[in-house]
Every structure is written in C-alpha cells, then in structure tokens.
Amino acid sequence: MDIAIGLVVGIILGLVAWRLLGRGGDDTEAARLRAELDTAVEKARAEAEAAARAQFDRLSDEAEAEQAARRKEIAEREERLRKREEAIERRDETLDKREGTLTRREKEAGKRERRLERQEETLEGAISEHRERLEAVAGLSQQEARALLMDEVRDEARQRSIDQVRVIEQEARELADERARLVVAAAIQRYASEHVADRTVASVTLPSEDMKGRIIGREGRNIRAFESATGCDVIIDDTPDAVVISCFNPTRREVGRLSMERLLQDGRIHPARIEEVVARTRKEVDVVVRQHGEAASLELEVSGLHPEIVKALGRLHFVTSFAQNVLRHSVEVGILAGMMAAELGLKPAPARRAGLLHDIGKAVEHDVEGSHAAVGAAFLRKHGEKKGIIDAVAAHHGEAPQDSVLSQLVAAANNLSASRPGARSESLASYIKRLEDLENLALDFDGVERCFAIQAGREVRVMVDNAKLNDRDADLLARDIARRIESELSYPGEVKVTVIRSTRAVQYAR
User: Fold this and answer.
1) I need a surface site. Which of 19, 78, 465, 506 has the fewest CB within 10 A?
2) Helix, strand, or coil here: 508?
3) For 235-251, b where at least 16 C-beta lie within 10 A, e where not — what string?
4) For residues 329 and 197, is the Cβ–Cβ distance under 8 A?
C-alpha cells in the first residue's frame, strides 16, 4: 500500500515537472525527462505490482491456514458427534435388551404366580376336605379340638412345673435357712451393739432464771436473732433453770445448743454477738463432723475415702433415722456385712466399705431430689467410688437390682441392724419426715434462700432474697406456700407460714 501511494505521488510530481519544463525548456530536455519519468513510472508500477502480489500471496496463505483450522475443528466436532451417536445407539440397544429381559421375567413371574395360586387352591381344598373327614370321625370341630388339646397340655405342663418348683423351693429353703442361720448367728455372736441408740439431748441448763429474760431480749429481738441464725426453735417455758433447743435437723440443733451454752457462759447476749457465736460454733461443728467421719472409717479400717465422703460420714453422727443414730447404724451395718462376707469366704473389706457408706445419701443436702439410696449412689459416683460399692448402696432398699453378693450382704446387714430390739422408733421418724417435707416444699419456690420448720411443725419461717421479691411478692409467696401445704401434706391442726424479707446495710467507722 505504501508503494502504491509513492507511485501516485511520483506520477503527479512528474506531470508537474513536465508541464513546467514544457513551458520554458527545449524539446530535448523534455524528451529526456519524459523518458526518465516513463522509466520511473514503469519501475514504480513494477514494484507496486510485486508488493501487491506479495501481499495477496500472504493473505491467501493466511486464509488457507484459517480455512484448514476450521476444517480440522469441524472434523473433530463431527468425530465427537459420531462417537456420541454411537454411544447413544449402544445405550439404546442395551436398554432395549434389558426391557426385553424384564418383559420376559414379568411374563414368567405372572405364569408362576398363576400356577402357585392354582396349587394353593388345590391344597386348600384338600386340607378342607381332610379337616371335614377328621371332624366327622372325631365328632368335634377344629376349634373345639384345638381348645381341648391346649387345655390338656397346659394343665399337664402347669402341674409338672408346680411339682418341680415345689421340690426346688423345698431343697433351696432347707439349704438357705441352714446357711443363713449359720452366717447371721456367727455375725451376731461376734458383734454386740448397744441395746438402744443414744438420743441427742437438746436441753440447755441456765445459771439462773434471770437468763431467760436476757435470752428473749427487748421485744424478743435476741430470741428472734438466735432462731434466724441457727434455724432452731427456742422453747422457754416454766421448766426451772432450763431452755430447750428444738430442731428436727440434728446438725442445726447441735449448733444451736453449743451456741446457747457459749452465750450463757459469756453473758453478752445481743443480735451481733449471737451471729458471731453461731458462725464460730458452726465452724467448730464442721471440725467435729470431720473427726466423726475419720473415726468411723478408722474403726472399720476403711481407707482411701474422698474428703467429701468423710465429711458426709461425719454429718451422719447428727442424723437420726427412726431415733437411731445413722452413723452408728452405718458402722453396725459395715461390721455385720464384713463378718457375713468372711463367713461366706468372701473378702470382708469391700463389704465393710459398702456397709459404712450405704446411708451416705442421708447426709446430702435436702434440695437433692430422689431417695437416699439413689442420692447416695450418685454422690459416691461423683467422688470416685468403685462400681460395686455404688451398686450395693443403690440397691440396699431394693430400689435397684441386687445383682451381686455384695448388694445382698449390705441389704441383709441393714435389715439386721434396723430390726434389733430398741434400735428404732417409728413416731419420731414420722415427725422428722413431716418437718423435712415442710422445709423442702417451701424451698421449691423461687427466691427462697432458707427455710426452717419450727414449733413442732406448726410454723414455717421462710427467708427470701429481697433483691428478687418485693413486699407484695412476699405476701403472695406466703399464700402460695400455704396452699401447697394444704394440698400436698398431712398435718395436725394448722401451719403458720411466715415469710421474712429484710434488708441489712453494714458500714465500718475507722
């Protein structure tokens, strides 16, 4: 393209020069210039033609290459389409073959089903005919014959099983009675306990009658502070030189008794001093609790107990069940279970351990739901006791399967300790159970912090969180608790429900 443009420009310039020279030059010079111009034009034309031919050849080659690439791509696409068509054809052939096979199988299955139906009809007819012949011969229908045969077989099997069970029971009873008498007699001979368990005394002797007034305090503030701090009921009557600390919870009663004795010895009786003495006494009782637990485990040679289990054992010293001291009862059960295990040729140590811990659930806080056997088993499981010990504790009242000898030994030792003369008193246990139910019922309500059943269960004092309940809520709470007591509990007379909501502000002047 550039050569063609140069050629045109050269021709134009040549024409211009020719005209200029034609005007002022001679013919010779003009002829020479014309000849040079012709030569230049021819040369330019030749170069332009060569360039045009080269460009044409290049464009032709590019066009042919592009066409070849397109032809190749088209060929590849045609090949792929051909292969896809072949695959589709093969798949169609396979499906046709499969459809044919399924059709043949369906026809064969239909033929087989019809053949079986005909055979079934034939068999039913034969069976019916045979049944009619049998009924005609026997004079009974099929249902009557079946019922008669089943009755005869049932009666015969029942009689045989009864005879066999009677023989087995008689043999087992003779062997078991003899062996049980030997085991229990040996255990009882080797261990003798006190005839009647000691009962906790809750009476406090006064140095003089004047102390009763000081205990009550101005407008009763001292006695109210004492009862609120300890959860005990202080009974001041005409008994000379004595007051009675009444509380169904033996641990709280012991704290109340010791606190009252120390207040009387000190002589300073006012609300602040009462709270201080009660707090210190409660810590000392915790130490005594641990000592009792350690002494009981040492007596039975039981080691490796978790510290929380030792503390729970110590709390059993202040717990009574049917007027029987539960810690002494647990020690008795451990000793008896160990002795019976030894008589049976078993290791006595696990039996002593399970017997000592069997009532541990009675020392767990009252807000834990469940029987004391289940609660005790969960408590021991939490603190790493072995499975055999836990199972024995859970099963000693039959609430869980007694699927081990250890469980049966603990249950037998528990019954033996509880059934000896003078060990238990039903009336006291019922009274304590009623007070426990009163407290547990009140503790179920939201916002209740503490609850004390006092006045022999005729009054329930409920301490609530003043941040959660206002005065109106306290009145509604008292009414709700009273309604639940009426609907769920049995009690003599009436029960007074007192809800106490107080705010205490404390600052120190330094």
Assistant:
1) 506
2) coil
3) beeeeeeebbbbbbbbb
4) yes
**Whole-angstrom Cα distance, residue 5 to residue 7?**
5
pTM of the model: 0.47
Q: Is 202 or 4 the better-scoring residue by pLDDT?
A: 202
- Rounded to an integer, the average pLDDT of 440-452 is 91
Three-class SS string for 423-446?
CCCHHHHHHHHHHHHHHHHHHCCC
pLDDT tens for residues 390-423? Answer: 999 988 888 888 888 888 888 888 887 776 555 5
Any idea what DSSP says for residue 458? T
Give the C-alpha separation, 206 to 165, whole Å. 69
Q: What angle do CA 5, 8, 13 make, to 5 degrees?
A: 125
Contact status, residue 449 vs residue 504, Cβ threshold 8 Å: no
Q: How far apart are the first and last CA of the chain?
A: 112
- State which H helix or E strand residue 276 sits in: helix 271-299
| Secondary structure percentages of the chain, helix, strand, coil, to 5 | 70, 5, 20
> 263 and 206 in contact (C-beta within 8 Å)?
no
Report DSSP state, residue 445.
Answer: S
CATH topology for the 304-424 domain: Hypothetical protein af1432 (1.10.3210)
- Determine how β-strand 233-235 pairs with β-strand 242-246: antiparallel
Distance CA 206, CA 267 (A): 11
Cα–Cα distance measured from residue 404 to residue 391, given in angstroms and rounded to the nearest whole number: 8
Reference 443, options 457, 459, 462, 430; nearest CA is: 462
Count CA atoms within 13 Å of residue 414 on its CB side: 23
Tens digits of residue pLDDT in 450-509:
999 887 788 899 999 888 888 888 888 998 999 999 888 877 667 899 999 888 777 888
| Sequence spans of domains, the chain | 2-135, 140-188, 191-299, 304-424, 426-510
Superfamily of domain 426-510: ANL, C-terminal domain (3.30.300.30)
Question: What six digits make up the tokens of 401?
Answer: 């399967």
CA atoms of 510 and 240, how far apart (whole Å)? 45
Over the stretch 231-290, which tens digit does the pLDDT of each residue have? Answer: 888 888 777 888 888 877 778 888 898 999 898 888 888 989 999 999 999 999 889 989
State whether CATH 3.40.50.300 applies to domain 191-299.
Answer: no
Q: Tell me which amino acid residue 268 is.
A: R
Residue 316 contacts by C-beta under 8 Å, 6 or more apart in sequence? 292, 293, 325, 326, 327, 330, 359, 360, 362, 363
| Angstrom distance (rounded) from CA 347 to CA 343 | 10
DSSP β-ladder status, 320-321 and 242-246: unpaired
- Specify the DSSP element, H or E, that contains 497: strand 496-500
**Whole-number Cα distances in Å, 305 to 181, 361, 386, 456:** 33, 15, 11, 37
